[in-house]
Amino acid sequence: SAVISQKPSRDICQRGTSLTIQCQVDSQVTMMFWYRQQPGQSLTLIATANQGSEATYESGFVIDKFPISRPNLTFSTLTVSNMSPEDSSIYLCSVEGRGGTSTDTQYFGPGTRLTVL
Amino acid sequence: QKEVEQDPGPLSVPEGAIVSLNCTYSNSAFQYFMWYRQYSRKGPELLMYTYSSGNKEDGRFTAQVDKSSKYISLFIRDSQPSDSATYLCAMTGSVLSGNTPLVFGKGTRLSVIA
Known about the structure:
The complex is a heterodimer of chains A (117) and B (114).
Chain A: E1 4-7, E2 10-13, E3 19-25, E4 31-37, E5 43-50, E6 56-57, E7 68-72, E8 75-80, E9 89-96, E10 106-108, E11 112-116
Parallel strand pairs in A: 2-11
Antiparallel strand pairs in A: 1-3, 3-8, 4-5, 4-9, 5-6, 7-8, 9-10, 9-11
Chain B: E1 4-5, E2 11-14, E3 19-25, E4 32-38, E5 45-51, E6 54-58, E7 61-66, E8 71-76, E9 85-92, E10 103-104, E11 108-113
Parallel strand pairs in B: 2-11
Antiparallel strand pairs in B: 1-3, 3-8, 4-5, 4-9, 6-7, 7-8, 9-10, 9-11
C-alpha cells in the first residue's frame, strides 16, 4: 500500500482565513481524492484530482471554496477558503489502489484536523 | 433513505467475544465492498475488500456480502483490546460505469474491554 503524509496534522484558524493542506505520496499515482469527515457523519468525497487536469468536484462542493492543485503524480494540495466554523472537520486525502481505479481500493492519509473559531 | 446505513454504536464487548458489524445499502449497482478501520486521530486503513457476494476471511476477520439482501457484515473473532476503533463500511459500483466514488457508512465505534 502507498504511504501518505499530510501537513499540517492539525490547525486552529480564524473565521475568514484560508488554509492549504498538503498531501504527499511515496509513489506515483494517477488519482488522488480529498474527503471531509465531520463529527458523526460519513466520509464525504470533496473532489477527485488527476494530474494534468482540473479537479472534479462532487455535488455540494465548489472550486472557489476548495481549490485543489495537482502539480505532479505524488503531490496535491487542498485549500479551504474563507473559512467558517462549519468547515471544522477532518480533511483526508487518499489515493487509488493497486488496479489504478477507485473501484479497486483506496488508501488514506492520516488526516488534517481543522478547527475554525 | 441514505445510500449506506451503519449503526454508529458505540458497541462495547469483552475481550475474546465475536463481534458482528453490519451495513445495509440501497443501490443495487454496488459491487465492491470494503471495510476500513480507523483508530482515534488516524486515517482509515483498509481491512477487507470483497467483490460481489460471498465470504472472505483474513485471520480473525471475515467479511460477508449478501447482495440479494443488500447487507454486508464484518465479523471479528477472538476480539482484542487493540481492535477498539471505528469501523467504516464503504462500497462502490461497477468498474464498467467508470470510476465511481466510494460511498461510506458513518462508522461503528467498537470498544473491546480487557
